[in-house]
Design a protein that fits this description.
By secondary structure, this protein is an alpha/beta fold. Helices cover about 35% and strands about 20% of the residues.
Length: about 325
Amino acid sequence: MAILPRPGRRRALTAAAAALALLGLVLWCLQPGGAAAPRGRVTLATGVPTGVYARYGELLKDDVARDLPGVDLRLLRSEGSIDNLRQLATGRAAFTIATADAVADYQARNESGADRLRACARLYDDYMQLVVPRGSAVGSARALKGLRVGVGSDGSGVQLITRRLLEAAGLDFATDITPVRVGIDRMPSMLEHGQIDAFFWSGGLPTLAVQQLAQRFPVRLVQLGDLIPALHRQGESTRYYRAAVMPADAYPRVQNGEAVKTIAVANLLVTTDREDAALTFGITKAVINSRDAIGHVVHAAQNVDLRTAVFTDPLPLHAGAREYYVSAKQ
């Protein structure tokens, strides 16, 4: 003869089963569209060592591991924005960071996969920095004629902007300077050892490599604000550059309490329309939620903001990212 559970025990078992079902439903609902939590290896293309993209990626990896425990985020070094977009197009990377002007240039040239690019968030702004030895006579980009200038690696957003700034200054990239095509991982040392006379860099403030250079070698930042009118006359894609001021405390050892006029351009977190909506939802959420933690180390990340993250011109938002922003406002 079967022994039936006592009524009190039956009620307890029923309540426990209901609670488990409710928990499962809640977890299911936390994913966009009720999809399963994302899992697997995901690649983020960043940038050159000592650059802000690389450091931001290292810190974001830790936050993704916490928020998306099933996702193994792998970092892939690159030469910069344009190289990053190519890595997305070929499928080597699932997510990357690129400047808005580089994205617009990629689209204008109808590069492979340009029509499939989608944005997750507007991040922080890059500031263009022209660095020279403190005793240099260079007071504007126009004075670079005849000098050896670090212009950024081929495939970098730095070189894209540098070419446009030199044109705005009335200089020919190929003939008026000696362009040295290396990245921020090499330019500071080359300036310190007299192998170049100046270098351009586009990055968040402050950039660690420039900070470290200033600690061991006297340098100065050259204003670029006088080039903005000529820069904006070059065409549609230059509309992504805005007049900006590097605050006096960006590099205290360099600026002597003085702000420096320059240009700035927004960085975007970019993916493609091939990426899963649940994964993109989760990555976007991790980026927004990690602002304060990352901002303690990469100060530029403090400017990541839920209210402005949706302004990702020239790219539309990925469906998963859009779903995250809708949910965050509810």
